[in-house]
Amino acid sequence: MKKAIAVDWLEKYGGAERVISSLTKIFQFETCYTLVNIMSNEDQKLVFSNKKIKIKKSLLQLFKSKFRYFFFFFPFFIKKIKVDKGVELILSSSFSVAKGIKKSSVNQIHVSYIQARNQRYLWDDEDIYFGKKIRFLISPILDFLKKRDIKQASNPDYLIANSRFVQKWIKETYKLDSEIIYPPVDVDSFKLQRNKENYFVTACRLEPYKRVDLIVQAFNKTDENLIIIGSGSQYNYLRRIASKNIKFIEYSNSSVVYNYVSQAKAFIHAGIEDFGIAPVEAQACGTPVIAIKKGGLEETVIENKTGVFFEKQDPNAILEAMNRFNKIDFDYEFIRNQSLKYSTTNFELKIKKFIKSIGKNDKS
Known about the structure:
Layout: E1 3-7, H1 15-27, E2 31-34, H2 41-47, E3 54-57, H3 74-80, E4 89-94, E5 109-114, H4 120-123, H5 132-137, H6 139-152, E6 158-161, H7 164-174, E7 179-180, E8 200-203, H8 212-219, E9 226-229, H9 235-241, E10 246-249, H10 254-263, E11 266-269, H11 277-284, E12 289-292, H12 297-300, E13 307-310, H13 315-325, H14 332-339, H15 344-363
Parallel strand pairs: 1-2, 1-4, 2-3, 4-5, 5-6, 6-7, 8-9, 8-11, 9-10, 11-12, 12-13
C-alpha cells in the first residue's frame, strides 16, 4: 500500500512534530505534503525515519519564514495541493488546515489526526491573537474562514482526536464524530528522578497562547526560582519583564529538557492545551504539575495526586496553587506510573489497530 502524510507546515521540532515522527516510523510514508518546509536538516532527521521521503510544498514556500502573513489563504493553498493518484492511504496531521487536503481518487482513504483545535486564531474568543479592535475589523474575513474550515473538516473519511477535549470541540464546531487516540509521549526517555531540587520549571514554545507571561508575573511576586525552557516570538519580551529569580534556557534538545524537568520540584503550565505532551513528560520523571484546570490537562493530571490545578489564567491563581502544592507530599513513583498510559508504544498499537480496522471496513 502506497502511503502519504499531509502536515500543515514544517518549521521547528515540537510536540506536533513528535506525533508526526511516530506516524512516519509506523507507516514509512513515501511522500509528505505540506504548505511550507523551512525546517532545519537536523530537525527533519528527527521527524522523518524514511530518509528518502519526498517533501512536496505549496507555492507558499516562496515566502519562507514570512508564510504566516498569508494565513488568510492557507485553506486555498492546501486545497490546491495535488495528491498522487497512486497513494492509497492519506494520513493528515492537522492543527491548522492539513485536514483540508483533497483526495485525487475515490479509492483513497483519508484519515486525519486532529492534533489541536484547528486554526485557533479563528475560533478563540479571548483575542490573544489579534486584539479586540483588529478582530472587529477583520471579523467578516474570519467568518468566511470559519465556514471554509468547517467545510474542509468533512474532507477526511475518518477523524481521530488527540483527547476528549478535542473530540468535544470537533463535535461542537464541525458537528462530526471522531475516535480518541492519545498522542505518543516518549516516557522511556523521561525517566523517574526521585531527587528534586528547589526550583520550578516550564518548557514550551514561547508564544502568546502558552501564557508564559502569567507565570513570569507570578514569579515576579515571589522569591521562588523558575527556569523557563523554550524559544519563540515572546522570548525577548519575557526576558525583559522577568525578575532575577527567573532563568531562561533556549530549547536545544530533549536531553536538556529532561535534565531540568526531571529535577524540578514542579512543572508549571498556564496555557490551555489540547493535550499537552510536555506536562506528561514531566510526570514521567515523577515531577508533579501545576496547571490551569482546562483543556487536555484535566485528562492527564490527577488533582493532589500527580499535581494541582488553578481555576483561571491569573498570576495570583498560580501563586495560590503553588502554596497548596507546597503542602502536599507527592509520591513520585505513582506520578511516573500514571504517565505510562500515554506511551509511544500504546499510541502505535492503537493507531495501527485503527488503520487496520478501517481497511477492513472499506473492503466490506
